[in-house]
Amino acid sequence: xxxxxxxxxRYPWLDHVIRAQQRYNxxxxxxxxxxxxxxxxxxxxxILMVGFAVVGFVLASRPDLLAELxxxxxxxxxxxLAPQLLSLMDAAIKSRTSVGLIGLGVALWAxxxxxxxxxxxxxxxxxxxxTKMPFLRTKAADLAALLWAxxxxxxxxGLTALPSVLxxxxxxxxxxxxxxxxxxxxxxxxxxxxxxxxxVSLRSATRAGLLAAVGFEIFKQLGSxxxxxxxxxxxxxxxxxxxxxxxxxxxxxxxxxxxTTWAAERxxxxxxxxxxxxxx
Length: 280
Fold this sequence. Notes:
This protein is mostly helical. The protein has helices spanning about 1-10, 10-25, 30-60, 65-75, 80-95, 95-125, 135-165, 170-195, 200-230, 235-265.
């Protein structure tokens, strides 16, 4: 312990990281990250329902595509399984409206719950006291933030996958990764500064946003290697993406929450959760 204290005295950045981790532990960051991860996985099921409903509407309006799909199923599946699959597909197409509406409603509820928990977690990491706000105003703000975060997340993930999809190499790949890092930096800086219930200045969050963005880009590259290794086997094809998504959601949330405590400790080194900080 004495050696660690001497290192902390000698290296201010190390002392800052340790204080940020202590603040993260005090604010129960892992519990918040686990809860947000659960809501992330839960939200996938209604989103899939909406996706199936969209496919159902497309197939219902395109009989030629439906006939081609029927023939492909019959050619690929033999025996009594083919009629059963076709019967399930017909039932799904007929119930596309109800499935889509239910999925959309549940997805909206899950998404708003996810955003509400994320904003509460970020507020607590900053040390902001809990303040009760008007219900409709809070939900409208959560919905707007959810849509913006969804679009920005798709942009940065798409930019990361672009080099592999287009087989980019050399300078083009480096440019794509740099743009992805920039988008991630802007996204995480906005999340850390503007999603807490009491917004803080962007100046307080830009360095923390860069810290989260660099960690996120490294983790995405490692995640792509993981999927390439896991998806080859039958068990990996079934469980690999689900486990990968859970780890991805948890690590990303943990990165954001830790970066928030890192920013909060930079603003108010001695502040504990419960005091308003980051309003410089």
